[in-house]
Structure formats: structure tokens, C-alpha cells
Amino acid sequence: MKNLLLLLFVSAVLVLSSCRKDRTCDCTNTTTYMSTSEVETTTETIGHATKREAKREAGCYSHKSTITQNGVAYQVSSDCKLK
To answer: 61 in a domain, yes or no?
Structure first.
């Protein structure tokens, strides 16, 4: 009986943890130059994927960086959430 319950529990965890469904990656991208900011929102839908697969495929990661172009520094940030 204990073995049966353990097997059912492990099976349920595996099924629920690797659930494939349509996922959406919502990103808010901000570029700042001096005191001016430009905000852009992007949404990408990834069909029939696990969270890990969707995050990898869409590049759904938050980051911050500084880019220097022609001696001018730009602050670039991206805040992404996988739903």
C-alpha cells in the first residue's frame, strides 16, 4: 500500500512539473540616455512548451546593461516575466 501511494505521488509530481501549455513572455524594455527614457513593451507567445523550454526559446530573461556608442552611454534594461 505504501509503495502504491509513493508511486502515485511521484507520478503526480512528474506530470504537474513538466506541464506543457501555451506560455507568454511579457517584457518591458527601457532605454535611458541622459534624462530621457524610452519604454517599449513586447509580448511573445510560445505554444505547447514547459516553462524551461519557453524561457529558453523566447529569451525571456531580465537584464540591465550599459552600451557605449560613439562616446555616448545608454542604460538598457529589460524586465521580463513568463506567464
So the answer is: yes
User: pLDDT by residue (tens digit) across 4-39?
Assistant: 777 777 666 665 566 889 999 999 999 998 889 999
pTM of the model: 0.64
Q: Is 67 among the domain residues?
A: yes
Question: What single string gives the DSSP state of each residue in 13-76?
Answer: HHHHHT--EEEEEEEEEEEEETTEEEEEEEEEEEEEE-HHHHHHHHT---EEEEEEETTEEEEE
Tell me if 4 is assigned to some domain.
no
Looking at the 3D structure of the chain, how many domains does it have?
Answer: 1
